[in-house]
Amino acid sequence: MPEHEQHDVIPGPPTDTEGLVVGSDGxxxxxxxxxxxxxxxxxxxEWGMPVRxxxxxxxxxxxxxxxxxxxxxxxxxxxxxxRQAFADxxxxxxxxxxxxxxxxxxxxxxxxxxxxxxxxxxxxxxATVDLxxxxxxxxxxxxxxxKETPVPRxxxxxxxxxxxxxxxxxxxxxxxxxxxxxxxxxxxxEAVGVVDTHLVGSHRRGASGVWS
Length: 212
Hints:
two-stranded antiparallel sheet, disordered N terminus, DNA-3-methyladenine glycosylase I, metal ion binding, Adenine_glyco, hydrolase, zinc
């Protein structure tokens, strides 16, 4: 079945600033961050901050894969359940999962019970372990950092893929990863600081320290 990629925007309150919303605290944020307290906290503390460790990147790659076709808020609300179900996203532990684990996970109402995504996550853990001989997952992902980051002034100017995300998807697929298409990989690059797509004027623009 073809991979369905989508990184949904969570709509915020009506705004006439083409994507920026000023909260009650006086801080401007991208509109999707205002969908709930959970989304605002994620935006303010985590989204776009650099992640360079293997486990952290494997977790976020896995969650982006589960998000395909769903809203990010749905995944974020189930994050702790995913961590419990997938051994805190320890690649070595997940790589040892077998068919019994697949069936166990398919019965776990706390996560997304999608056989293809579950088996892909297990396969991606094995691919992550195998990548260590070639520099590792972190090196591979961060080697696709572009020379420049987007500078969007509205949501319409935020890309959904890039030449670098296409190249990263190709490399990961060649290494045995699944659910890692160009759109999903661009969403990953946004989430872990490889690019900065905070809108100009957001209080989080440049917060990662990766891009000045």
